[in-house]
Design brief:
The structure is a single chain. By secondary structure, the chain is an alpha/beta fold. It folds into 2 domains: about 170 residues, Rossmann fold (3-Layer(aba) Sandwich); about 80 residues, no CATH class. It is built from 14 helices and 4 strands. Strands 2-3-1-4 form a 4-stranded parallel beta sheet, sandwiched between helices. The chain is elongated and about 70 Å long. The two termini are about 30 Å apart. Bound molecules: iron/sulfur cluster.
Length: about 280
């Protein structure tokens, strides 16, 4: 691993190169093979994280790209940096959180934590569920009342209280009455994260080393911080964080919507400049 002379602390890129090397952790793991281009992408990612610069990579599916950015993100966590990984689809969010992150966690020689935050309406709101139960006679047709009963029972056993964990079908109209909604959310009244799936998930991203969000959420959070002037001095959402955007071809549209830009963003560079200093709009 680089020129180790006893006092030399390996750079992020060196640690990552070691991980993907023929004698490294990935090669030693059963069932995974390193794919061509993966190691060099990972090393590049590590370099730009360390140098606090930007990188755009075009990599198709099946190239092992998620490991190529999660491994550098994990090693960066070891040195106190926080990764925000953003995807366009819930499917990729879940794959990262449920499959790829645990693989990396099992292979690196240190511990790091990850948290997943989906869009608010994916979460069951226990407060609205209780309200809906109280009014069910008026609001729901017979079949829907059954679904509501099912949801009450499910609320006690679901892992994260989100739609994708539902193992029975619920009409969109029913879910719309019981999902978390900003306009109906009263965290103080509800006792914060106690028993609230959404608040719990929001709380978990504060402490996690690797945070997995989606583009809509990311730009919503950035826009919110811009308004409240809460932008940390060194970082996008959290002190010392960095962003990894997968499925980035959708970024412009999502960003334009969330940030309320009237003009179409002509280039990713412009967007990145805006992101670097969201408050002052000063680019690098
Ligand atoms: S804090 Fe908001 S989302 Fe959570 S239970 Fe209360 S109203 Fe629902």
């Amino acid at each position: 691993m680089g020129h180790n002379n006893g006092t030399h602390h390996p750079s992020l890129a060196e640690s990552v190169r070691g991980f993907f090397s023929p004698a490294g952790a990935l090669a030693g793991a059963k069932g995974y093979e390193s794919r061509s281009g993966q190691a060099s992408m990972a090393e590049k990612v590590a370099e730009v994280i360390e140098a606090k610069r930007h990188l755009v990579v075009e990599a198709g599916t099946g190239t092992g790209k998620s490991l190529a950015y999660l491994v550098p993100a994990a090693y960066a966590a070891e040195s106190g940096r926080k990764a925000i990984v953003s995807t366009y689809t819930i499917h990729l969010q879940e794959q990262l959180f449920g499959k790829d992150v645990p693989i990396v966690q099992s292979l690196v020689p240190f511990e790091f934590t990850a948290a997943l935050l989906k869009g608010r309406q994916n979460y069951l709101c226990p407060h609205r569920l209780r309200k809906a139960q109280a009014q069910q006679g008026e609001l729901f047709a017979t079949g829907q009342a059954e679904q509501l009963k099912g949801l009450v029972e499910w609320a006690g056993r679901t892992r994260d209280g989100t739609l994708s964990d539902l193992d029975f079908s619920v009409d969109a109209a029913v879910w719309a009455q019981v999902c978390s909604e900003a306009f109906a959310c009263t965290p103080r009244h509800c006792g914060g994260a106690n028993g609230c799936f959404y608040q719990k998930a929001r709380g978990a991203i504060l402490d996690a080393n690797v945070v997995i969000v989606n583009h809509a959420l990311l730009f919503g959070l950035l826009a919110g911080m811009e308004q409240e002037e809460e932008t940390p001095d060194e970082g996008y959402l959290f002190p010392n964080d960095f962003l990894i955007l997968d499925e980035a071809h959708e970024v412009e549209d999502v960003a334009a919507k969330a940030l309320g830009l009237e003009v179409r963003l002509g280039s990713l560079r412009f967007l990145l400049q805006r992101l670097v200093h969201p408050r002052t709009k000063k680019g690098v």
